[in-house]
Amino acid sequence: MKAALAQFIFESNTFAPNLAEIDLFRKGGVFLKDEAQVRAWAAGTDSQMHGSLEVLAAAGWEAAPCFTALCGSPAGRLSAACFREISGTLLDRVAAAMPFDVLILHLHGAAAADGEDDPEGYLLEKVRT
After folding, report:
1. Euclidean distance between CA atoms 51 and 34, whole angstroms
2. Distance (Å, rounded) from C-alpha 40 to C-alpha 102?
3. What does the angle CA 122 – CA 74 – CA 7 come to, to the nearest 5 degrees?
4. What pTM does this model have?
5. Distance in angstroms (rounded) separating the CA atoms of residues 121 and 92
6. pLDDT tens by residue, 15-32
7. Contact 11, 111 (CB under 8 A)
8. N or C: which end of the chain has fewer CB within 10 A?
9. Which residues pair with 52 in a beta bridge?
10. pLDDT per position as a tens digit, 42-100
């Protein structure tokens, strides 16, 4: 059995006046789209990704951790360009991991983006189609 894993962790403060840009993830957080990079990063953390990889390995499953984007500090809404890059990359990497038996998505659930009030809902809808 094979599980693909992707992660998007971000908390928006909709009262903050500035939009969050992709550099917030690349320079101050994590933005990884290569399986080896995601594995190496997760191995040194106490993250959801690390826990999932351990459980899957113990169960004898093949794991394909294909994407992670996270930022530990809350900021304003994601800019439309930032959300397009994150969502587009996540969806492309999930598609590239096919075929798989299950997709594990680690989502925080508190993001908002310019033009998309429910980024996690958008991602869930798109991965199903």
Report:
1. 18
2. 22
3. 45
4. 0.94
5. 17
6. 999 999 999 999 889 999
7. yes
8. C
9. none
10. 998 999 999 999 999 999 999 999 999 999 777 999 999 999 999 999 999 999 999 99
